[in-house]
Amino acid sequence: MTATTPRPADAIDIATIRATCERVLWSPSRFSTEETERLNSLVLGHIQLLVPELSSVTSHLSADDQDVAAHVLAETERRLQLPRNTPTYLWDMAVQCRAIVTLYDWAKCAPEPSPV
């Protein structure tokens, strides 16, 4: 894939999403119940924002990366159906969110596919 200039008018704050994921994934201690609920809401909100955005730009990715994106999106959908009160739910969803934002960032910098 060849990187080019990102497309304009990108309303998604990638840095904030990455920071939220890092907070969850690299915290040396457990969160309070209130902080867990707050972070859960943040991560799930990021995912709800990113899923349709990633879906709309996957055609900009190589075939292999499109397969990865399809897998990540399917796994995210599966995990969204799981009970949210498990000890690992927040961490698992932060992993999914980080994967989605990485693929989205990569896809939005990729050149648009040529019309056939």
Please describe what this structure looks like.
- With about 120 residues, this protein is mainly α.
- It has one domain (about 15-110).
- Helices cover about 65% and strands about 0% of the residues.
- The chain contains 4 helices and no strands.
- Helix 1 (about 15-25) runs antiparallel to helix 4 and helix 3 (about 65-80) packs antiparallel against helix 4 (about 90-110).
- The longest helix has 25 residues, at about 35-55.
- It is elongated, with a radius of gyration of 15 Å.
- The two termini are about 20 Å apart.
- The model is unreliable at about 1-10 (pLDDT under 50).
Secondary structure elements and pairings:
Layout lengths: L13 H12 L7 H25 L5 H18 L8 H21 L7
